[in-house]
Fold these 4 entries.
Entry 1:
Amino acid sequence: MDLPQARAAIIEKLEKAGTKGEPSLATASVLTTNQATFDEALAALEQEGIALVNREGAKPKYYLKEFAPSHRKSILEKLQKAGAKGSAALYTPSASANTRAAIENEAALLESEGEIVVDRSGEKRKYYLKSLAPEFPILEDICAKLEEFASAKYPEMVSEAELKKQLSKAEAASPFKRAIQLMEGQRELVRLRHGRTALFASGRALRAALGEGISNPPANPSPQSQPPPESIASPDNTGIIRQTYRVLAERSGFPSVKIAALQRESGVALPALHRWLRDEYQHGRAVLSFGDWSLSDEATRSAALEIRGEHYLLVKLRE
Amino acid sequence: MNASEINPFADQIINEPQRLEAAVGGLNDRPLEVLLAEFDRLAEGPTPRTKRRLPYAHLVSSPQPGYGKSHLLGRLYREIQAKSIFVYILAIQNPATVFQSLMQAIVRELHFPPRSGAGPLDSEQSTHLDLLAHHVFAHLLAGLIENRIGIEIDTPSDTAEKLRADPLLAFNRGTVGDLWADWMRENFEKLLPFFGEALEIRGVSLHSPGAWLRALFHYAWSPFDANKRRYVRDWMTAQPLEQEEYSHLGMRAADAPDCEISPHAANELCRQRLADLGQLAGYFRPLVFCIDQTEIYAHQPLIARSFGMAVAALVNEVNNHLTVVTSNQSPWVERIEPNIEDADLDRLSRPFLTLQGLNREQARELVRLRLEAWQKPAGELTSFLDKAWLAELFPAAGNEMGARHFLQKCKERWARKPAPSAPLSELYQQHRDRLLAEPKRHLFEPDTLQWLVEEAALELPGLKVTRVDQTYFRVKWETPQRHCFFGFEAGTNWKRWEKIMKISQNAASATPPAKSVFFRTADMAVLPGAWRIADQFRQAQASCLHIVVLEVEDIAELYAAKELFADAAQQNISFSTTQVMSFLRDQLAPWWERLRGPVSAPPTPPPAPPPSDVSPLAGEVRDIVQKERFLSVDEVILKLSTPASRDDVLKACGHSVEIRIHSHPNMIVLQWQTS
């Protein structure tokens, strides 16, 4: 049997095997040909994409391309079946390490192609078909709801459980903690303690009551569109800026924070913040760094501090 | 221009952390102390320390490029080089084989002697792996003697103590006539079950204990058998072995990777090997993995994800090691971290180790060190460090400035004019010159080569590049004339190469025809070996199987391309990655043509230079530079007793860690520097 005949024989056998695949194709006895010709024909078919070899198991298994099991197909089918509930696992616990790796790689590809959606907000990931994925609660919407509730309750303080009750089941699930964390960082909620119990108050209401006159910053303000309120350049800003800096540095894990983020989250107007930073820099209490201009968005760039003609995006504050 | 006219502040980037450079006192001592304390947790107390594991890897970060990440790695290296296995790991390229890439980098390092500035491979010197093997066997044997398992001896405690005190002296690399070396050779197979028992007593649980012990034994007891030692390295990196090869190591078929092993399976095997190596390192020295240039992952989300997973796996699965990752803050926060799973990020210690800039006093110190290193008169320091100038840069004593930014300001002040960045061609040439003097970079680096044909070639005109996931091939080029399949095979398994040959022959008759391209470095075994298919293989080489053998000069040329790109990704230079890619498309044009063109006749392998050719030149260059402190390569050539080329001199510099290389447009200056 020559090479073309060996090719034809392999194709015929794989056609018969269909989606089950053929594990014993490698034995010469299947074909009346010598092993070298057989190997050569098989390698050529593999190279041409006509035959596929699955090597995830202990032994290889051979398929015609159209019958080969595709992780892509099985993932999509599984998620189609799971519907809006999604699926927490794409493989069974008994799957081999090779199979797991192959499935995870395929899932990552599908995610990057926008075919599937992965919810990572919980302790475990959950996979959905893009078209069937539920509307994931938007963090900003949750924050807005909680802020509205805490403001309405002021001067009464609210517990975490009360805050949670304001949300739907989906909202109150995993993103809740992150929402609280974010709001504390942005000073929309202020955490207070009564004994061992943590209670929250609306930051906006508190500031109004204290007569600070600083409204909460809009979600994504253009730093340069802020009016330059001279009153904010008062020494009082030091506390706000430093407190905000600490929250930002702790959240990111880096002591250098974006000046844009410091402005946004402190609520201090940019010109006032720049003046304050210049002063701190002159006294050696602020360390400025360039950051990465090419990776920064317009909001970050427009908050840069200019000194000696050089533009700094990041600042580290010394205590 | 002569060497004394070189601007002392021109050199601002550290690309080779192990090379010596004086450090400014107090600068970034804290992150170094943290890393040293972590290392001490692994290294303190007597060996064996097989079960130590650190809970976290460490991220060393700086808020902008040029704060001294690589410099810090260099300082860490100098502090622990004599008590660690220090592995410097550059960017990986294939997310599917990340553990194999790590293991390849580790094994490359293990096959070098531990002393700093070790030159090209020299079988006279013990490598890290030799020492590891000696320590493993000394401790295992001592344990058997002390516990009277399988061995009865009159003076058990004395003997065990001597074995443990100096394993290299005890076994002497298997030298015939040495008592313990001979005894081990004769009794090794009988001792294996007992060694296995001794490992268990220590709680060491290897995936393949017998194979590991055989591999270590045959490596250490065959210091001059390059083939056998290569089989061991191939086994460690999950390269398939032929029956004859694994038989030489006393292994069974089940111990050696199958010749058709898939990339995924090889990767999984390397993950196991890494975990095993970590346990074995407890008998010798802790492993230290320094993963640099991660900014490259900012351009490759899938690799960033795999990288995060690999770091987490190292922490979770590998004993006796410290992983240090470096990154600039912005690429990390904006592009890398978002692609890494939260659970994997949790394996990084917080807060991150962040680097500081120079304060006024440290800036003064850096200037002093630079001027002294270039032997400038003492008076120059006073006039250079004008108070008003320093006060402008550092209004208060506490102000900080990144070291590279300050050096740039010094460079301009020294030149008394703005100092524009060197053009890309010059930066590229600097990398090429430096790589010539780095013997550890003269080896086969599949990730670097894959980056070259996959990323650097991406926008070449008339060429479509795709990544393929096949057993033997990783990248495919499509041109109107032909398709080119690139593979990165480090091994010499003839069955595997036979498959490759047949696939290549078959593909050659397709439309358009295809060829396969494989890179090999000059230190690797020549293909084909003494195979029964050798004649067929040579025929294939002439038509469709393009084996590109890279000499050291070629390697320096190709690897320099990746280094230049890494510089741009890290913002070490003022060119973007896009500009670098555009430059490389032109710079490497002859390479692109060669790789996409028809297969040329296989070159006859050059005769291997006798080892004695290298050492005298290295010694002579070292002596000249040490005496003169700094001089140009051309001046060195004039002083040599025998003729040598510029590249020969640079390669000879690879023997001396004290020699720093400064490339300038019209000259290359060699500088003697000690810490």
Entry 2:
Amino acid sequence: MLYTLVVKSSHLNNNPDAMALALDLIHHKHQVTAIFFLFDGAYTANAFIDMPTDEPNISQQWSEFAQAHDIRLVVCSASAARRGICATNLARGFNLGSIGELVESCDAADRVVSL
Amino acid sequence: MKKYLIIMQQAPYESSLALEGLELALAIAAFNQDVALLFKGPGVLQLLSNQKPNPLEHKEFTKAYAGLSLFGITDVYICQNSLAAYHNPDLMIQPQVVDNLKIAALIKDYDIVLTV
């Protein structure tokens, strides 16, 4: 099945759940078309996130995830602008995108999960 | 074309989420998608009439709800239990009041359900 994921929580909240779900989906031979970061989810795309060494860096994990699985990470540009995320501080693997892209992805997907 | 149900659960001025939820709904509708709104929990407070937030602190974005049909959004629902919890306040628009059974049916009926 084709899945589109929508992540609404920041890297400091429960967005590891989204990654766990994405990994499970891939493990079970589903396809994840794209992952959208809306609202506070946009904070995840900040390349300047610098976590203490004994804490997980979720943003970096997403970057690695995107590269390993060739999955597009899209940050809603309106959400990003409000939170100071722009082309100059966008973390690796993230792309600025519009709601149009979300609609397109939802249209193609069999399931859309927002969390 | 898919049908979107956007469930608005945020109080209007507690954070930017309520405003961003409305923006999301309008943006999706602008792409000619079928969008319905369901107000639930503190989300019903977004529809209170006579809101006067301090303009230095908040934009009174909820005025846009009066013109939802201009954006092609005509299906607007509100949770009966949530309304009762807030003592049936005066609302700026009159959405269709739905009970939990109807809400379950809506969630089943719509292709994509996004909670804000």
Entry 3:
Amino acid sequence: MSADPEFENLVELYYRDLYRFGFSLTGSEVDATDLTQETFYIWANKRHQLRNPTSVKGWLFTTLRREFLKICRHRKRVAHEPIDEGAQNLPHVPADVVNRIDAQTLLKFLGEIDEGYRAPLVLYYLEDLSYKQIGEVLAIPLGTVQSRIARAKIKLLELLTEAKPRTAA
Amino acid sequence: MNTNEAKEKLLLYRDPIDDADPQFREALAYAHRNPELAEWLREQAGCYQAIRSKLRDVEAPRDLAEKIIRNQPIRFRMDWTQILKLAAAIIISAGITAASLELWHRGNHPVLQGQEIVVKGEVLDLTCYVAYNWSGPKHASCAMDCIKSGLPVGIKTEDGKVYLLTGKEAHVNDQLADYAAKVVTVRGKETARDGFAQIQVEEIRKF
């Protein structure tokens, strides 16, 4: 019997989603585990401060991403390839190309995208959130959310296109 | 709207998540009339689903939920209700201690003398331990303050037995405050008053 059923229920409900989000951001099992744990412990300490208990999932995602940014600041920054602000050509990537690569390769490509663009892109793929909700989670305006996702998606598709000959070989 | 403009719009479209989003309506209608664009949209959707599936297939470690719940920190709300409860517990505890000392002086409740024992265990701030079951490293800072302020100090042995630590002089608190929530070994005479176990401390070994 748990001493804190509210905490236990919340963990059971969301730990998978948070872990996936953390894993997609970091590409590391250890970091994703730490981020997930830390997020729930922050909630445990601050739950009474939450203004809107119904938006707890969004709050958890926001918190995990904030903790992720702290990790990024503490570690040596990896130089990411710049996102082309004026990208016009939309790469053509058939689904079977994606199906042929493993999850680790996909995560590696995500890791090559700048953090500011990676988080909205991961939420775009992982969660059934509207663009407005993604903006609320990441605390960025709707227009910025959409432009960042579009640019990051083009970048990811370019990386997948470049990976095509390697995976086909 | 031309095909390129429609593609730029539909690059972000997710079926069915964005179905209700009006910004895609015109581009979707255009795709219905343009077979080439419709085919491009189908491929985009296939690619989106393939990436989504890969990311969603990531499994969290099996024991992660259990680990998070097991290691949950002690809940400590710093609101006024909690602070007042804690203050009340401290006042009551101090009152009980003062009354016990008074009775001891009067000799109404004689201390049952026992043998010399050596016990190893965690140094406890007995007020918070008895009132709230707070102990361990996460409570160390509070325990240190309580012990320094003169509230009853105890020791919890590895087999779970709790003793009140007393000394001939009032130095026990001073000696143990910095070891709050840490493990020490204590040698002294085991005594009891009204069934409550105590150790009259003669020696403290710290690690």
Entry 4:
Amino acid sequence: MNAELLPLIFAALMGGAILAYVVLDGYDLGVGMLMPAAERAEQDLMVASIGPFWDANETWLVLGIGLLLVAFPAASGVVLGALYLPVAAMLVGLMLRGVAFELRIKAEGWHRELWNWLFWAGSTLASFAQGLMLGRYITGFAPGFGYWLFAVAVGASLCGGYVLLGATWLILRTEGALQQKALAWARWGLMWLALGVALVSLATPLASETVRHKWFDFPQVLYLMLLPAATLAAGGWIWISLGKSDWKPFAGAVAIYVLAFAGLAYSLFPYVVMDRLTLWQAAAHPSALKFLLAGAAIVLPFIVGYTVYVYRLFRGKTRAGVYDH
Amino acid sequence: MEEALLLARVQFGLNIAFHILFPSITIGLGWVLVYFRLRYEVTRDAAWLETYRLWVKVFALSFAMGVVTGVTMTFQFGTNWPGYMNKVGSIAGPLLAYEVLTAFFLEATFLGVMLFGMNRVPGWVHVASAAIVAFGTTVSAFWILALNSWMQTPAGHTLENGTLIAGSWWEVIFNPSFPYRLVHMLLASGITAAFLVAGLSAWRLLKAPDDAGARGTLRFGARLAAVLLPLQMLAGDQHGLNTLEHQPAKIAAMEALWETQKGAPLVLFAIPDEDQRTNRFAVELPRGAALILTHRFEGELKGIDAFKDHPPVAPVFFAFRVMVGMGVLMLLLSWGSVFFLKDPPRWLLWAFAGFTFSGWIAVLAGWLTTEIGRQPWLVTGVLRPADAVGEAGGAALGASLTAYIGTYAVLLIAYIVTLTHMARK
């Protein structure tokens, strides 16, 4: 295999894994953040709706970060070193909400309340930290107050984005009063996310000259504007289909993530660390990449296959008691 | 820099020590659950289903703890040891990625079916899901021990432009210490799970002496331990011989053998003195070490004096003795209880209850023996920790370390309280 092609393939695999993570764990983190807005019985139903899936969802993060370590070791040191504290915050958040799944069922009395609270706090901390990481990453970890403020704004926006995913997931998986509530949450999430996406889209070209040239140089600006137009359309589609369809809002939310991701990928390419390291400069030795690609080519279709199987197995509305164990 | 290195090591060591507690339960418990579930499928006896339902809860909680601490570990490879990935990433990376691809997704996905799918799938699919999850945990151990063993006894690599690349993946994976380490760890997990099952059942019986199910699982756990412990001693002996061949300095530290000699004694107890290079208060069995390690009375063993690079003696020496001592106590308890299990007396219940987490102590002691025994190397002969540490400053490391310690403490307490609470409810 061509040694020039390997880093490109692995960038695509890594990007795919991260996108899968953001969408999949995004909805269950979103559900976690919405917990305080719901009644006691509804909370149990909300957690039940993500119970069979969250574990596998989080595995996509391990795959994404694993691919960064394996395929782009030079970049992994720079990226993870620069993101040291937000990564630690995210990990603490993920730990707390991960075990809270199990402990909130088994605990009683105020212990149970505590784990419910930690489930919410962990979800929120992890989501915000991920947004913060994204904000730092796309500006190439530039120092200065303004850049940090930008990262905080992205962190808040991603929380809104996950709330949208979580709310539309609940519209898909629940019914009755909870579903009605989820409609209102989805509207809030959508507005919050729209503000965030607009902010990021405007700030990124201002913050980075590379990005400005890539997007606004003539003539590519003409067809590149299809991307924000499509994102706007997806947002509008969610807004109109709220209350009319169970699945369209979730599909629309996923579409927004795919489009935003495509935009980000376009902004970054060919860099894996903005303006510093390209994919090819950071890539691991071809011997490692070839060995891994052989395995990935065989195993990934199976992973996709049994993931689809499990989602089909647990399709339909979540009802109380069904997921007890 | 010194301080940052120490903090980075403490942070990573603490994370990995906390993490290893939970896989050491789930690898063994996964297969125990397959057995319980299969017994129900064959006998249709509701008691087996009850047993399965109870223990799958323990498994789910342990598994969640393992997942979240494992995710943390993956990130800490990058945040704490960027030099590790730069130098040996082309070997370590693919092994870790194979673990994710072939094990993590499998376990995590089918755990959903195992926990929530019983009424949605045919019985055999549910049994198969349990088996797939158990298989996944074992495959996970395979890859992580391949990497760990490679760091202990590297093989199959070549040096190119200052970084290591694999010459032969077969030799990398099946490096000299791997088969021994894998067997040792899998047996350790089986024993840890066996004592957990027996211990929590004993807690239950102390509260509710007539619980027939708990009596059955106590019997099961005790017998499983009684079968696995002698096998573990055999595997441990073979592992020791392998270490003698490939990492003799580690053996010298484990035995607190300062000078190369023929017919070396077995030091039962001592306080190794690193400065004076001697043992204080030594209680020795003449020619014991020579007999165990060379299987001859007059066999020669290399002492610390034979090695320029060697691990610190005292921690390796003590950790090894804690592991072996724990193993002997576990053997005595499991064998000693054989005739009392039909109608277990209270003293035996208290003994098993006290040994609920005995596997953890042995696993941690063994892990400390082997990992401290690898020092001063991160990858034997290739990379030292100081050359792998990242740029994170003492403040960032200290702050995150505090957060991690707080989180681990909360999780560990919650875990133990929840399990014992479940057992007594």
